[in-house]
Design brief:
about 55% helix; about 10% strand; binds magnesium ion; binds guanosine-5'-diphosphate
Length: about 425
């Protein structure tokens, strides 16, 4: 942020006087309206400001945001603080108390003692708010308060449901972020756009406005940092517009972005990706056949792995006895079969070492039993029943593989055979 803008936001020098004058004028205007006039007006705007350890910013941001809000909106500001150790909640409460007599809009503080997390804090604020439109913004001056009016104006002008203040549309920009953060932001944006089919340029924005009705039927997961993404995916049919703004990195306090943000992000994108996908098939017969189909496909892929690995070892290590090469091929194919069956056929996501090892050993044991059974069966059918080799091979492979599927389903992956 350049010096003039910064001064403007944090209230230094001449700009402070301007803001104070502006606020005083608005207060005077407010006083000319009677209290009942104000309270009987519908609340058209709520501004949600989540905070955590923002003691250096909170008073100034409340000053400036409240002076930026149009009186006619009968707006409220809701600060949601997660019991900040630096006393942000207390400072905000004190400010709100003073504003009750002198302020131009209602300020409420929600102090969450037991819950943590940005998305859930925003959601708490949204639920507690009553405005017809809601704006969400940070408390660290990264989001210029004067953009709020532009967002509301755009919402009315284009009659849309969501207005995103965007860093990535023409006219938007980022000031003060190191290359690494810009890269992470761009990467996360691309992932959201590609995997969730989102068209807008800045779905990761933390600065946005929306009409309350669009979230009426949404059940939120509120994982991690980016609640806008969840709204964009779940508020189907909502009309979205973007307007540019200049994001400026904070000057006071610290960013709360840490490593868990990235894993939370992956989790939330995965959840959103699954959102709206058809429910799991309910018919037992279809599920059984689908798993059997996957089991046989994996088996076929195992033959290929077996052949390729045996061939490769035989070719690369020319001194290796071909029986050893074949054995290595068998071990590789059994292992790849196991991994694919665990993750794909039986969709077992529990990958703890102990459980996986026990499953692997059980799987190998059943595969070996299957192979021995197949040998014995062919020997019996060809030798004593005089069946043709081709037919006896077919019969024994069919019985062994069906047995293998059922045994592994029941004992290795602990599923009911038919359920
Ligand atoms: N209530 C609450 N607010 C949070 C939490 N984490 C971040 N915030 C607030 O969310 C806004 C954005 O956080 P910030 O650390 O600046 O994120 P960055 O801009 O991505 O580096 C700021 O107003 C923070 O005070 C949280 O866990 N709970
Ligand atoms: Mg920030």
């Amino acid at each position: 942020m350049n010096k003039v803008l910064l001064d403007r936001y944090i209230g230094v020098g001449n700009q402070t006087q301007n803001f104070n004058r502006h606020a005083a004028r608005k207060r005077a205007e407010a006083m000319s309206l009677t209290k009942t006039e104000i309270s009987t007006r519908t609340r058209s705007l709520s501004v949600i400001i989540p905070t955590f350890n923002e003691s250096q910013n909170i008073t100034k941001i409340l000053d400036i945001v409240s002076s930026c809000l149009p009186l006619a909106a009968n707006a409220e500001i809701i600060v949601v603080d997660d019991n900040s150790p630096d006393g942000t909640g207390k400072i905000a409460e004190e400010y709100a108390r003073r504003a009750r007599t002198t302020g131009t809009c209602e300020i409420r503080i929600i102090n969450r003692k037991d819950e943590k997390g940005l998305s859930s804090a925003i959601l708490t604020g949204i639920r507690a708010s009553t405005g017809e439109s809601v704006v969400v913004m940070d408390s660290d001056f990264s989001h210029p308060p004067e953009t709020i009016a532009k967002m509301i104006e755009e919402m009315k002008r284009s009659d849309c449901d969501i207005v995103v203040a965007s860093r990535y549309v023409e006219g938007g920009s980022i000031t003060g972020w190191p290359f690494k953060r810009k890269l992470i932001s761009r990467g996360a944006t691309k992932i959201a756009q590609r995997s969730l089919g989102i068209k807008i340029k800045d779905p990761m924005s933390g600065f946005f406005a929306f009409r309350r009705h669009i979230i009426r039927n949404i059940s939120f997961d509120a994982i991690g940092y980016k609640i806008l993404l969840e709204i964009l995916v779940k508020a189907r049919g909502a009309k979205v517009r973007e307007i540019p703004y200049n994001f400026t990195d904070r000057k006071s306090g610290k960013s709360k972005l840490d490593r868990t943000v990235i894993s939370d992000y992956v989790k939330s994108v995965w959840k959103l990706y699954r959102y709206g996908k058809p429910e799991k098939e309910r018919r037992t017969s279809v599920r059984f056949l689908s798993k059997a189909g996957r089991f046989y496909t994996v088996g076929a892929s195992g033959l290929l792995v077996n052949y390729l690995v045996s061939f490769l070892f035989g070719a690369v290590f020319s001194n290796l006895w071909y029986i050893y090469a074949t054995m290595i091929g068998i071990v590789f194919s059994m292992t790849s079969n196991f991994v694919l069956n665990k993750l794909w056929t039986f969709e077992d996501r529990n990958t703890t070492a102990k459980r996986t090892l026990v499953q692997y050993i059980t799987f190998l044991a059943f595969s070996s039993i299957g192979a021995i059974f197949q040998l014995g069966m062919v020997y019996l059918l060809v030798g004593t029943e005089h069946m043709s080799y081709a037919l006896s091979l077919f019969v024994s492979v069919a019985i062994a593989s069906i047995g293998n599927f059922i045994l592994n389903k029941k004992w290795t992956f602990k599923e009911k055979v038919w359920s």
